[in-house]
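Lab notebook, design round three. We kept the backbone fixed and only want residue identities now. Task for the bench partner: fill in a sequence for the structure below.
Input structure tokens:
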């Protein structure tokens, strides 16, 4: 019996020592090593890809933001501040206005299928009807497209519904995409120029300067980071 108790004690002590050693290695030393290497080699990315303006953090390159007017009495959804470039639609973006406050609310996709609210036409092709059922993805896309056309049509420049790209009327899978397509940015150029008393050529150049190409020349699609573009726009208007 004494041998049995002694063996059990040795096994428990060996297990305890293994637990302590692995805790120190995996729970302390390894995280510190990874953190130290990340801070030394990729400090910006290790700290969340922070974007700074005037010496203070105004957001992250990786998380989108909205640019809205203050919520008025009786409004459930604030109107977009049309002097800024607008991001993709999303219910998950934090509110910001280049940039007094940065606050993330929630994130997530709509979880609606691409044919939500669609009807089947000739040949089995599905399409959104002229008046889709409220609350469906078709209704959201239809309303968003009408808003993009209305907001970005200014005297001397009319946006056609066929000009509106998909990312202007749909959210990303995460709901936090910080980028828009160059096509969506260009649709907004005339409106941004008018609201900020700039020339179309000035704003066009701004978009071109902040358009990133495909990674390694073939991965992904060209994109524009809305936060960085709006910071550059603010600097241009105040310059």
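Proposed sequence:
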């Amino acid at each position: 019996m004494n041998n049995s108790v002694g063996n059990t004690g040795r096994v428990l002590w060996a297990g305890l020592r293994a637990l302590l050693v692995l805790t120190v290695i995996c729970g302390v030393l390894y995280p510190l090593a990874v953190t130290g290497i990340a801070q030394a080699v990729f400090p910006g990315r290790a700290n969340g890809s922070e974007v700074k303006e005037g010496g203070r953090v105004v957001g992250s390159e990786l998380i989108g933001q909205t640019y809205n007017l203050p919520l008025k009495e009786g409004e459930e959804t604030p109107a977009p501040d049309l002097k800024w470039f607008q991001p993709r639609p999303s219910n998950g973006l934090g509110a910001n206005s280049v940039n007094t406050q940065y606050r993330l609310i929630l994130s997530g996709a709509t979880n609606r299928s691409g044919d939500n609210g669609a009807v089947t036409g000739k040949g089995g092709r599905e399409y959104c009807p002229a008046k889709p059922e409220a609350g469906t993805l078709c209704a959201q896309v239809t309303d968003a497209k009408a808003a993009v056309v209305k907001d970005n049509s200014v005297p001397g420049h009319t946006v056609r519904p066929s000009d509106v790209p998909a990312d202007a009327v749909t959210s990303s899978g995460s709901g936090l995409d910080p980028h828009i397509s160059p096509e969506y940015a260009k649709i907004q150029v005339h409106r941004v120029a008018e609201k900020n008393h700039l020339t179309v050529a000035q704003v066009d150049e701004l978009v071109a300067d902040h358009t990133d190409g495909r990674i390694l020349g073939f991965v992904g699609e060209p994109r524009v980071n809305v936060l960085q573009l709006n910071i550059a726009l603010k600097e241009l208007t105040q310059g």
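Keep this in mind before ordering anything: Residues 92-102 have pLDDT under 50 and may be disordered.
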